[in-house]
Write a structure and sequence with these properties.
There is one protein chain. The protein contains nine helices and seven strands. The protein is of the alpha/beta class. The protein has a single domain, classed as Rossmann fold (3-Layer(aba) Sandwich). Helix 5 links the parallel strand 2 and strand 3. The longest helix is centred in the middle third of the chain and has 14 residues. The two termini are 20 Å apart.
């Protein structure tokens, strides 16, 4: 599942810190078979970017969020001509209003931290596992705790930094121990410090060089593919 994306498409799909977070798309395609049409549940999709990506590749997508979906998201999907592949649903990740074993893929990007505490985060992963069909796939890109400097600057400069609970790689693997196979990759050190998308794009070039030589615990994004 590899459609060549334009700059506009990539920006609408990934939305912010695009150069670093977009690497999740290659990682998912390398580690999951997404070649045939799937029924996909996209969680935490207020802007609808990941739903757009999967609809562009011909998948049937439930675009969901805890709140009502804004009209701007629906209009964006309409502009790409994929509305017939997307339905919209208000869904709480901790209590997913779908039948058990009803979807082929569950995906999210930067969602779990918003739940704010470890119990709710673990419950959300239990719900994701429940709604996935046998051999179903969980795809995610999520914020990691990162280094001590990341933690300090988030609390000081990010308006939701105090209430967002950033996770560790070991936590997310532990919560998902029931899966038969998994692959993860951590990425990014400096781009998080950019105050504009232009700055983040510049710093992402530095991350390309730094990522192979920095400790995993310094990185601020985790990509994952878990197979039920």
């Amino acid at each position: 599942m590899q459609k060549q994306l334009s700059t506009k498409e990539l920006n609408d799909i990934v939305q912010w810190d695009v150069k670093n977070w977009a690497k999740c798309l290659d990682f998912w395609n390398e580690n999951a078979d997404l070649s045939s049409k799937k029924k996909v549940l996209a969680i935490g999709e207020r802007e609808g970017g990941m739903s757009l990506y999967f609809a562009l590749h011909g998948h049937e997508v439930i675009c969901s969020d805890y709140n009502e979906m804004p009209d701007t998201t629906k209009k964006m999907h309409e502009s790409y001509g994929v509305s017939e592949l997307i339905t919209y649903q208000k869904i709480d990740a901790k209590a997913i209003a779908l039948e058990s074993e009803s979807v082929d893929v569950v995906l999210f990007k930067s969602v779990i931290g918003a739940l704010g505490n470890a119990n709710d985060q673990a419950q959300a992963f239990d719900e994701i596992y429940r709604v996935l069909k046998p051999n179903g796939i969980l795809l995610f890109a999520e914020n990691l705790e990162g280094s001590g400097l990341h933690k300090f600057l988030r609390k000081k400069f990010v308006k939701w930094g105090e209430r967002w609970r950033y996770i560790t790689e070991s936590e997310i693997v532990g919560w998902n121990s029931k899966y038969t196979a998994h692959a993860t990759k951590s990425y990014g050190v400096t781009a998080l410090f950019g105050r504009s998308e232009k700055q983040r794009k510049f710093l992402a070039h530095i991350d390309t060089a730094l990522n192979p030589i920095t400790p995993r615990k310094w990185r601020y994004i985790l990509f994952g593919v878990f197979k039920k």
